[in-house]
Every structure is written in structure tokens, then in C-alpha cells.
Amino acid sequence: METAHHLLAECRYTKRIWKFVAQWLSQESLQPGQWKHSITAIEWWTNITFTTGIPRKATRSLALLIMWEIWNERNSRIFRYQGSPTASLMAKIKSSTNLWIAAGSRDLTGLLL
Predict the structure, then answer these.
(1) Which of 31, 71, 82, 84 could join 22 in a cystine, given CB atoms 3.0 to 4.6 angstroms apart?
(2) CA 74 → CA 1, 22, 52, 107, distances in Å?
(3) Whole domain around residue 68: which residue ranges?
(4) Cα separation, 1 vs 27, whole angstroms
């Protein structure tokens, strides 16, 4: 059974996305292997958004953005029978991050510098 926790924190595809995000931002603490163990989506959210060394607002904004893109990818795979390769989803995440920054997200700006 697919749960929110599985989709956001346990799925192999999602972990691969988070691994690439951590590398892109040079934030080792965002690597799935560095996450504290969690059982629920809210526990995972709390663990990941209270990461030391990264501003909380920036992490929350980034996590929401990534969750949105993962959710859209999941729906595309299930309802339209189309999936994107990891590189394509990462490109969407980077593009959306830049759009959020252009719209005034100062916290994300600081995370990318």
C-alpha cells in the first residue's frame, strides 16, 4: 500500500531525487542516508525540516517544492502512464526553485548560494 510516508521518504525514486538535490546544493544533511528514522510523513517532515546547518524556512520551502514535483510525477505515472527520468524531474525542481527565487523567496536564494 502506498502511503504519504512511502512516497516522500521511502520510495527508491524519491530517495534518488533527494540524493541529487543534496549533491546539487552541497548539503550532505539532505542525503537520505543522513535522515533520522521515521515512521510517519509528519515525523519525516519534522526530521528533515529541522536539519542543522540549513535555515528552517529554506528547508521547508525546498521540501514543499520537491514534494509537489514528486506528487505531480507520481500522478503522471499513474494516470497518464508517462514517467520522467530522474534527470528530467531534477530539471523541473531546479526550474521551479529558480521561479520561486524570482518570485521573492529570499530563503531559497540563501540556500543556493
Answers:
(1) 31
(2) 14, 21, 30, 27
(3) 4-112
(4) 31
Return the ∠ at Cα 97 (arms to 91 and 99), rounded to 5°. 105
What is the total count of domains within the chain?
1
CA gap 56, 13 in Å, rounded? 25
**pTM score of the predicted model:** 0.86
Reported as a single tens digit per residue, the pLDDT across 16-52 is: 999 999 999 998 889 999 999 999 999 999 999 887 7
User: Roughly what angle, to the nearest 10 degrees, separates helices 56-79 and 12-25?
Assistant: 140
Query: C-alpha grid cell for residue 100?
Result: 520561486
